[in-house]
Design the sequence.
């Protein structure tokens, strides 16, 4: 009688990579719900369209590469990339923006590098940056949040939304600057105190800008869920947020017109929380050891703050993440953990010198 | 010096396809990436490069026996620089706007490795006529790739094709502009920026590989039956 | 007390321990055949001492340990040895190996075991001997001979008894602790006695048990009351039962990478081993049975059994209603580190703690591996704080430098990383492969290093030999020329050779004058002697540098050369004696037979003569050369040790050999009767014998590059020195009224003559 020969370990924990991805997608739901509540169905449509495009592109490339399509689609990584890109895009942007972004994310940033597990850069952020530098106008038009709507204006309904997205029938005046835009344009003009009072996006908000503050809170909740589920460790998000807080304290300067903005403002506006818990924690393109992830997260936080306050773009999560993706292998070489039985940690490159 | 006489069709095939300076040798990437944002730029630089390449190849071939190995590179560079200056002056005279758009990249033709490479690898070892042909074909191959990259980037980046051709070809070309993507095309800036050039060239190289592979398979398929009846594999019986 | 250091990493696989603890400890029937692999342990395989057809009794020794790290094997039941042949082993590779096969007679007759209740009064060595004889090896998995582990060179401060049993499914140790807690404590005290006795610094004795075995903890705690044995419990987490992990959990210390626990003063033993050691010492019972867990849903009965070692696994399975079609695989050991068997014919051996036959629902076939997304769950789970995902990456890339830097050698292959991997990558398998390749690379590198070293050494030696040859050739040429000249002179002065300054020539002349001696013959003989001597010297030099293997060959050559030298010497002497009765002592004749202008030949001849004279002197010379070799060997060894070279061990043994030789030669020397015939100059001569050759060689080498004038001056100086020595000797002889005085005097006289002649020549040159 011959038995199957398999090497140890024979036991395996339940779950697979697809489950991990599904958990992350699930954790996006609170943020998505809040975004939809404040800005209408635009983001939801983005997410659906982006995931669909991503899956189609993934399947097409896998077919070209002669890989099993179903096996790889089932790991949900393409869907997740689409979801994250959809969340990052401005609501009601034209359909082709979503399609181009999603296609470049999957084809250029992921499959051309070898597919799942081999991409050095976060695909969703590559897609986002390609869109941002190609179509700056479309990419910087955000919808007004619910509290900012004028008396007669209602939140855009699904039909109107689809019309705008697919046919380019735009609703007049249905755009508003984001808190980060307002803040950037205020530079050197009003004291922060006055800006908070006068700009509607701030005066209608509670602590960091109407709508956006809640959306960030939603992503924070989702991130908490993932931490609880041990999908990733706390190191990257915590060090990233902590760096932003420290930088904000250093450059707050009491709230003058040249202030860098308060910590609350930075934490709860733009894509900070989405970036901290869903983008920066993307394992494939980040550093691997716990020490490395601390450095990696801190680098992202620092870059976000630098670009937001002194750079040309109002938000910077995508740029910061991509720049640190570059640095991740380098960080890995110098942040090996101390192994059992060794006095101190080693460097990955020490044998080559 | 014994000139290895490469057949002319071989020279042509090398320049245009097999040993294409842009897609295979990856020489002259700097101008390729920098000025291929539109067809007119690409064509302008391409023509200038052909001019310099043919001129320098002829000149190098003529003097090849008089120049010792030790000083050949400085001499070649001097020759190339002279032709580049001529070209620059010509462009300044006849296509001034284009000259202004291409700017620094015209003088920088001097540093185009493709030109020096051909001078050293081919012209310094061959007769005048093959050298001239080699210079022309290499230049043409380079220009064709430039134009291909330029048109792809122009279409994706601006939605047009052959825009501003009058800068190069004069008034007859003023109406050539085609709005491929329609009037409202917003333009995809990334294609016009350097990353776009890298991506497009990358795809072109991949495409070339795919075509080569297909061709190879075809050749193999054709060659296969011949191998079957080959006498060399016979191990028994008499060879008739 | 009882502080616990939490283990970094670790996982919580489903325990699955309840199913085998429902039934009490069982027994199974005797199989129709028992199989005893000769290698059930780490180390050298045992050597069978029974023959096919021999009757054996239960507990009888059937194979003995071979070397230090090895273990005895005993029959676990009575019967007939039916074969000694290659059978399937319970080994990860599924390989076959030599086994003793026994057909039981069913009577299970036992030899008498030597019981001893007062075992603690025995000598430590006696106890260790008993444990060693009982063939006890580690029963937790690896199977390291226990007696070796209990006799460490380092000072031991802590004894840890491992009752962790962190692998899922296995409950053999749990069962043992519950049923034999008293014996466990006694065994622990025995081991503590061994490690702490006589004057060792054993401070702490602790039994470590995971907190998922409350019954075992209670039983052991009760038994350990009022003893110095500490019972430590800690949270259940795989792999806290790993040796290094348990040490960290209980002491907070880490075993340095690449070292044994004993290096930090800790010895760790499995509970099963501890009880077996007690049985060996107290009951005199060898290791012939053990408790094994038989578990898995494809079995009808799941329980722990007391099983005789050597029982084929298929018999165990049959006794437990095994359903082959249900089973997904057959595992020896637990689901984390156990290995799958392809065949069920392999027997239960000393380290078989579990036989796991899971059903297809229980442990389904692994799904195909997905891409690594570097999620880092493996790094979180790794108990050794490695980065499994990076190691996987570099294994795929075959980047062994990076793997080394990532400490792949410290991977304990516990499988925690593979267990948690969401992409189902068999990580441990990759590391095993990489480690194997790295080992092979290291071996290959060492091999090539060694051959390169050998090559370089050979080159050097050849160059040196070439140089020496060159020098000798030059010397010989010079000598030949001089001889020719001398010969011509001798011929010329043959008629009135009365005051020739060359005694040899004088002798020849005299001989010629007195008797018609064939002059040519003598010249020929002289040349033959000189060439034979040079050959002899060459052979000796080569012998001194030769490897051990080539030595006999060279020695025979040397013998030949020596014989030839002696032969020619004899012939020459006969010739001389025939021709001239006034020949002086042997010594001087020889010195003079050789051309005096060639210092090399002179020195060598003198040395040769001395060495050939007397067995005693030969021995002394032998000692001298051996000592020299010892010196160089010691130097080499020191260098090798300083460089941590692997050849150090080989050199060490070589050194030992030389030392041994020296002592034997010295003994021989002592055994020889003191040779009274030898004058007191013997020691000086003995010294000179070996040194002179060297000196002569050096001189020859030096003279090769000197002008004739310088050479001459050198010669004069050396002659002066020799003269002085000779005078001294003469004086001594005179004061002591030695009978050799005459000989000394004439020698001194001759030297003076020679010196005068040389001075004259020097002046002539100037």
Sequence:
């Amino acid at each position: 009688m011959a038995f199957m020969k398999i090497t140890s370990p024979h036991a395996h924990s339940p779950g697979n990579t697809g489950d991990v991805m599904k958990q992350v997608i699930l954790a996006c739901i609170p943020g998505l719900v809040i975004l939809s509540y404040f800005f209408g169905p635009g983001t939801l449509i983005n997410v659906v369209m982006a995931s669909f495009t991503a899956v189609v592109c993934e399947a097409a490339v896998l077919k070209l590469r002669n890989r099993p399509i179903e096996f790889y689609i089932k790991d949900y990584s393409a869907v997740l990339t689409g979801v994250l890109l959809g969340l990052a895009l401005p609501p009601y942007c034209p359909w082709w923006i979503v399609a181009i972004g999603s296609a470049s994310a999957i084809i250029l940033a992921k499959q051309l590098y070898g597919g799942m597990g081999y991409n050095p850069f976060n695909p969703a952020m590559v897609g986002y940056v390609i869109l941002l530098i190609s179509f700056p106008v479309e990419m910087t038009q955000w919808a007004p949040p619910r509290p900012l709507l004028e008396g007669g204006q209602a939140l855009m309904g699904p039909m109107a939304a689809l019309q705008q997205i697919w046919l380019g029938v735009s609703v007049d005046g249905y755009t508003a600057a984001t808190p980060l835009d307002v803040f950037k344009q205020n530079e050197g003009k009003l004291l922060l105190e006055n800006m908070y009072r006068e700009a509607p996006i701030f005066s209608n908000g509670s602590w960091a800008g109407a709508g956006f503050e809640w959306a960030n809170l939603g992503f924070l909740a989702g991130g908490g869920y993932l931490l609880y589920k041990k999908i990733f460790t706390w190191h990257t998000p915590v060090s990233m947020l902590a760096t932003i807080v420290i930088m904000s304290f250093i450059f707050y300067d009491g709230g003058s017109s040249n202030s860098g903005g308060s910590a609350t403002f930075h934490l709860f506006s733009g894509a900070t929380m989405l970036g901290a818990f869903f983008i920066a924690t993307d394992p494939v393109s980040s550093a691997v050891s716990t020490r490395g992830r601390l450095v990696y997260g801190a680098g992202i936080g620092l870059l976000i703050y630098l670009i937001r306050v002194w750079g040309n773009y109002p938000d910077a999560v995508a740029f910061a993440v991509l720049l640190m993706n570059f640095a991740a292998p380098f960080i890995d070489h110098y942040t090996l953990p101390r192994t059992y039985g060794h006095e101190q940690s080693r460097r990955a490159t020490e044998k080559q010198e | 010096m014994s000139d290895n006489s490469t057949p002319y069709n071989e020279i042509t095939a090398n320049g245009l396809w097999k040993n294409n300076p842009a897609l295979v040798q990856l020489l002259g990437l700097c101008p390729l990436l920098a000025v291929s944002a539109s067809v007119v730029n690409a064509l302008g630089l391409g023509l200038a490069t052909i001019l310099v390449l043919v001129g320098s190849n002829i000149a190098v071939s003529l003097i090849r026996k008089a120049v010792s190995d030790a000083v050949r590179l400085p001499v070649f560079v001097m020759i190339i620089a002279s032709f580049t200056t001529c070209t620059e002056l010509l462009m300044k005279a006849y296509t001034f706007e284009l000259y202004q758009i291409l700017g620094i990249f015209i003088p920088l033709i001097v540093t185009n490795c493709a030109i020096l490479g051909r001078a050293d690898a081919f012209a310094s070892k061959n007769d005048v006529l093959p050298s001239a042909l080699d210079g022309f074909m290499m230049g043409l191959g380079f220009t064709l790739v430039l134009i291909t990259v330029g048109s792809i980037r122009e279409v994706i980046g601006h939605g047009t094709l052959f825009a501003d051709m009058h800068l190069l070809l004069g008034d007859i070309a003023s109406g050539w502009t085609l709005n491929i993507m329609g009037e409202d095309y917003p333009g995809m800036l990334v294609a016009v920026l350097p990353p776009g050039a890298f991506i497009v060239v990358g795809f072109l190289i991949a495409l070339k590989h795919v075509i080569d592979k297909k061709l190879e398979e075809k050749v193999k398929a054709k060659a296969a039956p011949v191998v079957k009846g080959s006498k060399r594999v016979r191990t028994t019986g008499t060879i008739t | 007390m009882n502080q616990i250091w939490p283990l970094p990493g670790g996982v919580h696989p489903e325990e699955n321990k309840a199913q085998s603890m429902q039934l009490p400890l069982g027994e199974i029937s005797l199989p129709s055949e028992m199989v005893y692999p000769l290698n059930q342990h780490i180390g050298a395989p045992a050597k069978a001492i029974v023959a096919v057809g021999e009757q054996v009794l239960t507990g009888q020794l059937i194979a003995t340990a071979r070397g230090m790290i090895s273990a005895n094997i005993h029959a676990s039941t009575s019967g007939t040895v039916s074969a000694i042949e290659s059978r399937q082993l319970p080994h990860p590779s599924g390989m076959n190996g030599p086994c003793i096969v026994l057909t039981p007679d069913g009577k299970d007759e036992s030899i008498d075991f030597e019981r001893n209740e007062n075992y603690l009064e025995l000598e430590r060595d006696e106890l260790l001997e008993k444990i060693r004889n009982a063939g006890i090896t580690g029963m937790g998995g690896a199977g390291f001979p226990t007696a070796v582990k209990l006799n460490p060179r380092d000072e031991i401060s802590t004894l840890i008894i491992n009752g962790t049993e962190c692998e899922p499914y296995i409950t053999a140790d749990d069962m043992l602790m519950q049923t034999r807690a008293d014996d466990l404590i006694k065994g622990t005290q025995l081991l503590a006695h061994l490690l702490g006795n006589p004057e060792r610094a054993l401070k702490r004795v602790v039994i470590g048990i995971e907190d998922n075995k409350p019954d075992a903890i209670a039983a052991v705690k009760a038994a350990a009351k009022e003893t110095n044995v500490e019972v430590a419990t800690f949270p259940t987490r795989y792999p806290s039962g790993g040796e290094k992990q348990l040490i960290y959990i209980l002491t907070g210390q880490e075993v340095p990478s690449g070292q044994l626990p004993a290096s930090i003063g800790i010895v760790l033993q499995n509970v099963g081993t501890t009880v077996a050691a007690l049985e060996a010492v107290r009951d005199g019972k060898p290791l012939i049975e053990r408790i094994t867990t038989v578990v898995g849903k494809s079995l009808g009965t799941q329980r722990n059994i007391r099983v005789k070692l050597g029982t084929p696994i298929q018999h165990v399975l049959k006794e437990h209603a095994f359903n082959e079609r249900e089973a997904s695989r057959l595992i020896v050991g637990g689901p984390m580190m156990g290995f799958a068997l392809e065949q069920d014919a392999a027997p239960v051996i000393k380290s078989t703690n579990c036989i796991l036959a899971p059903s297809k629902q229980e442990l389904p076939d692994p799904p195909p591996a997905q891409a690594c997304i570097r999620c880092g769950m493996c790094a979180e789970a790794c108990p050794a704080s490695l980065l499994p995902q990076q190691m996987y990456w570099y294994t795929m890339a075959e980047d062994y430098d990076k793997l080394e830097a990532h400490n792949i050698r410290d991977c304990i292959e516990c499988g925690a990383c593979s267990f948690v991997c969401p992409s189902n990558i068999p990580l441990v398998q990759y590391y095993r492969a990489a480690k194997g390749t790295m080992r092979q690379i290291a071996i290959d590198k060492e091999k090539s290093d060694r051959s390169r070293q050998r090559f370089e050494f050979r080159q050097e030696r050849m160059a040196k030999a070439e140089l020496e040859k060159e020098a000798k050739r030059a010397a010989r040429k010079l000598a030949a020329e001089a001889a020719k000249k001398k010969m011509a002179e001798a011929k010329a002065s043959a008629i009135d050779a009365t005051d020739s300054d060359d005694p040899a020539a004088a002798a020849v002349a005299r001989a010629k004058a007195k008797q018609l001696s064939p002059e040519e013959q003598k010249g020929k003989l002289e040349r033959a002697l000189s060439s034979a001597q040079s050959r002899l010297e060459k052979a000796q030099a080569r012998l001194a540098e030769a490897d051990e293997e080539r030595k006999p060959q060279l020695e025979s050559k040397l013998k030949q050369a020596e014989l030839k030298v002696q032969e020619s010497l004899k012939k020459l002497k006969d010739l001389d004696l025939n021709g001239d009765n006034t020949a002086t002592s042997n010594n001087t004749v020889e010195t003079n037979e050789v051309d005096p202008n060639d210092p090399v030949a002179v020195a060598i001849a003198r040395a040769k003569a001395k060495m050939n004279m007397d067995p005693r002197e030969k021995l002394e010379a032998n000692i001298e050369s051996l000592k020299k070799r010892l010196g160089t060997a010691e130097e080499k060894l020191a260098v090798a040790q300083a460089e941590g070279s692997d050849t150090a061990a080989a050199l060490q043994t070589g050194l030992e050999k030389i030392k041994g030789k020296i002592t034997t030669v010295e003994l021989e020397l002592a055994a020889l009767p003191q040779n009274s015939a030898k004058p007191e100059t013997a020691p000086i001569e003995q010294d000179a014998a070996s040194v002179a050759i060297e000196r002569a060689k050096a001189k020859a080498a030096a003279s090769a590059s000197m002008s004739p004038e310088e050479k001459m001056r050198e010669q004069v100086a050396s002659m002066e020195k020799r003269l002085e020595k000779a005078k001294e000797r003469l004086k001594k002889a005179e004061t002591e009224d030695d009978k050799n005085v005459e000989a000394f005097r004439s020698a001194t006289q001759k030297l003076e003559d020679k010196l005068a002649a040389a001075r004259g020549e020097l002046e002539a040159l100037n």
Observations:
- Confidence is low (pLDDT under 50) at residues 581-595, 675-685 of chain C.
- The longest strand of chain C covers residues 79-88.
- Chain C touches chain A through 77 residues (CB under 8 Å).
